[in-house]
Amino acid sequence: GGEPLLGWQRFYVDLFEHPKMKDLKNVTFETNTTQTLHKDFEDYLRKQDRFEVTWSCSPKLSVSGEPWHTAIKPEIALSYYRIPNSQMYFKFVVADATDVDEVTKAVAEYNQVGIDVPVYIMPLNTNSTQKTLQSWQWQEDGDIHQDSMSTYSEMPGGLEEINKMKWRKNNGRD
Predict the structure, then answer these.
(1) pTM (2 decimals)?
(2) What is the mean pLDDT of the chain?
Protein backbone atom coordinates (compact mmCIF):
# COMPACT_ATOMS: atom_id res chain seq x y z
CA GLY A 1 0.00 0.00 0.00
CA GLY A 2 0.89 3.64 -0.16
CA GLU A 3 2.30 5.81 -2.91
CA PRO A 4 5.15 3.86 -4.60
CA LEU A 5 6.86 6.98 -5.93
CA LEU A 6 6.92 8.80 -2.58
CA GLY A 7 9.89 7.26 -0.80
CA TRP A 8 10.82 4.18 -2.77
CA GLN A 9 12.42 5.73 -5.87
CA ARG A 10 15.87 5.65 -4.33
CA PHE A 11 15.67 1.84 -4.00
CA TYR A 12 14.20 0.87 -7.37
CA VAL A 13 17.40 0.91 -9.44
CA ASP A 14 19.12 -1.51 -7.05
CA LEU A 15 16.00 -3.66 -6.89
CA PHE A 16 15.56 -3.84 -10.67
CA GLU A 17 19.26 -4.60 -11.18
CA HIS A 18 19.32 -7.41 -8.60
CA PRO A 19 20.26 -10.74 -10.24
CA LYS A 20 16.93 -12.29 -9.21
CA MET A 21 15.15 -9.63 -11.29
CA LYS A 22 17.03 -10.43 -14.52
CA ASP A 23 13.87 -11.86 -16.16
CA LEU A 24 11.72 -8.88 -15.27
CA LYS A 25 9.50 -7.94 -18.23
CA ASN A 26 7.03 -5.38 -16.84
CA VAL A 27 6.76 -3.11 -13.83
CA THR A 28 3.50 -1.37 -12.94
CA PHE A 29 3.47 1.72 -10.79
CA GLU A 30 0.05 2.41 -9.32
CA THR A 31 0.39 6.09 -8.52
CA ASN A 32 -1.75 9.08 -7.63
CA THR A 33 0.30 10.97 -10.24
CA THR A 34 1.57 13.70 -7.91
CA GLN A 35 5.17 12.62 -7.36
CA THR A 36 7.99 13.98 -9.50
CA LEU A 37 10.41 11.31 -10.68
CA HIS A 38 13.84 11.63 -9.05
CA LYS A 39 16.44 12.48 -11.67
CA ASP A 40 18.51 9.31 -11.16
CA PHE A 41 15.43 7.09 -11.32
CA GLU A 42 14.06 8.87 -14.39
CA ASP A 43 17.45 8.58 -16.12
CA TYR A 44 17.54 4.86 -15.31
CA LEU A 45 14.05 4.31 -16.73
CA ARG A 46 14.92 6.25 -19.89
CA LYS A 47 18.09 4.23 -20.53
CA GLN A 48 17.02 0.70 -19.62
CA ASP A 49 15.44 -1.47 -22.31
CA ARG A 50 14.96 -4.73 -20.40
CA PHE A 51 11.40 -4.18 -19.16
CA GLU A 52 8.32 -2.17 -19.94
CA VAL A 53 6.79 0.24 -17.45
CA THR A 54 3.05 0.64 -16.96
CA TRP A 55 1.85 3.81 -15.25
CA SER A 56 -1.48 3.11 -13.59
CA CYS A 57 -2.41 6.69 -12.76
CA SER A 58 -5.21 7.23 -10.28
CA PRO A 59 -5.48 10.96 -9.60
CA LYS A 60 -7.70 11.82 -6.66
CA LEU A 61 -10.98 13.67 -7.10
CA SER A 62 -12.74 15.86 -4.52
CA VAL A 63 -14.65 12.80 -3.23
CA SER A 64 -11.29 11.74 -1.72
CA GLY A 65 -10.92 15.04 0.15
CA GLU A 66 -7.82 15.95 -1.88
CA PRO A 67 -7.79 19.56 -3.22
CA TRP A 68 -7.70 19.85 -7.02
CA HIS A 69 -4.46 21.86 -7.11
CA THR A 70 -2.56 19.14 -5.26
CA ALA A 71 -4.23 16.17 -6.98
CA ILE A 72 -4.30 16.99 -10.71
CA LYS A 73 -0.74 17.44 -11.97
CA PRO A 74 -0.62 17.24 -15.79
CA GLU A 75 3.09 18.12 -16.03
CA ILE A 76 4.02 15.28 -13.67
CA ALA A 77 1.83 12.85 -15.62
CA LEU A 78 3.54 14.04 -18.81
CA SER A 79 6.95 13.17 -17.35
CA TYR A 80 5.72 9.59 -16.79
CA TYR A 81 4.12 9.47 -20.25
CA ARG A 82 7.41 10.40 -21.92
CA ILE A 83 9.39 7.50 -20.45
CA PRO A 84 10.41 5.18 -23.33
CA ASN A 85 9.09 1.60 -23.24
CA SER A 86 6.15 2.64 -21.12
CA GLN A 87 2.40 2.81 -21.32
CA MET A 88 -0.11 4.72 -19.23
CA TYR A 89 -3.75 4.81 -18.34
CA PHE A 90 -5.88 6.85 -15.95
CA LYS A 91 -8.41 5.46 -13.55
CA PHE A 92 -10.72 7.55 -11.43
CA VAL A 93 -12.91 6.59 -8.48
CA VAL A 94 -16.33 8.24 -8.75
CA ALA A 95 -19.32 8.41 -6.44
CA ASP A 96 -21.77 10.48 -8.49
CA ALA A 97 -22.30 12.70 -11.54
CA THR A 98 -20.29 15.51 -9.93
CA ASP A 99 -17.27 13.21 -9.91
CA VAL A 100 -17.85 12.34 -13.56
CA ASP A 101 -17.77 16.08 -14.29
CA GLU A 102 -14.43 16.27 -12.47
CA VAL A 103 -13.11 13.37 -14.56
CA THR A 104 -14.10 15.32 -17.68
CA LYS A 105 -12.20 18.37 -16.42
CA ALA A 106 -9.14 16.33 -15.40
CA VAL A 107 -8.97 14.45 -18.70
CA ALA A 108 -9.18 17.78 -20.56
CA GLU A 109 -6.22 19.10 -18.53
CA TYR A 110 -4.17 15.99 -19.29
CA ASN A 111 -5.13 16.22 -22.98
CA GLN A 112 -3.95 19.86 -23.05
CA VAL A 113 -0.38 18.78 -22.28
CA GLY A 114 -0.49 16.04 -24.92
CA ILE A 115 -1.54 12.97 -22.94
CA ASP A 116 -4.09 10.81 -24.77
CA VAL A 117 -4.42 7.45 -23.02
CA PRO A 118 -7.23 5.09 -21.96
CA VAL A 119 -9.43 6.34 -19.13
CA TYR A 120 -11.17 4.00 -16.70
CA ILE A 121 -13.85 4.82 -14.16
CA MET A 122 -14.28 2.77 -11.01
CA PRO A 123 -17.28 3.26 -8.74
CA LEU A 124 -16.80 4.03 -5.09
CA ASN A 125 -17.52 0.75 -3.35
CA THR A 126 -21.21 1.20 -2.49
CA ASN A 127 -24.28 -0.51 -3.88
CA SER A 128 -26.13 2.75 -4.65
CA THR A 129 -23.12 4.07 -6.54
CA GLN A 130 -22.80 0.87 -8.53
CA LYS A 131 -26.48 1.01 -9.45
CA THR A 132 -26.18 4.65 -10.57
CA LEU A 133 -23.04 4.00 -12.60
CA GLN A 134 -24.55 0.95 -14.25
CA SER A 135 -27.23 3.24 -15.68
CA TRP A 136 -24.44 5.25 -17.33
CA GLN A 137 -23.08 2.29 -19.26
CA TRP A 138 -23.09 2.35 -23.03
CA GLN A 139 -26.62 2.19 -24.40
CA GLU A 140 -27.56 1.29 -27.94
CA ASP A 141 -31.24 1.48 -28.93
CA GLY A 142 -32.25 1.54 -25.26
CA ASP A 143 -30.36 -1.64 -24.35
CA ILE A 144 -27.98 -1.43 -21.43
CA HIS A 145 -24.69 -3.25 -21.95
CA GLN A 146 -23.37 -3.62 -18.42
CA ASP A 147 -19.77 -4.25 -17.65
CA SER A 148 -18.81 -5.72 -14.31
CA MET A 149 -18.78 -2.66 -12.11
CA SER A 150 -16.46 -4.30 -9.60
CA THR A 151 -13.71 -3.92 -12.18
CA TYR A 152 -12.73 -1.00 -14.38
CA SER A 153 -14.83 -0.13 -17.39
CA GLU A 154 -12.68 1.13 -20.23
CA MET A 155 -13.84 4.31 -21.82
CA PRO A 156 -12.40 4.33 -25.34
CA GLY A 157 -11.84 7.88 -26.47
CA GLY A 158 -11.67 9.20 -22.91
CA LEU A 159 -13.30 12.63 -22.87
CA GLU A 160 -15.60 11.84 -25.80
CA GLU A 161 -17.05 8.82 -24.01
CA ILE A 162 -17.42 10.72 -20.74
CA ASN A 163 -19.45 13.34 -22.59
CA LYS A 164 -21.63 10.63 -24.17
CA MET A 165 -22.33 9.20 -20.73
CA LYS A 166 -23.27 12.62 -19.37
CA TRP A 167 -25.51 13.37 -22.38
CA ARG A 168 -27.37 10.09 -21.94
CA LYS A 169 -27.83 10.72 -18.23
CA ASN A 170 -28.96 14.35 -18.76
CA ASN A 171 -31.36 13.42 -21.57
CA GLY A 172 -33.19 10.65 -19.77
CA ARG A 173 -31.54 7.78 -21.67
CA ASP A 174 -30.60 5.93 -18.48
Answers:
(1) 0.72
(2) 79
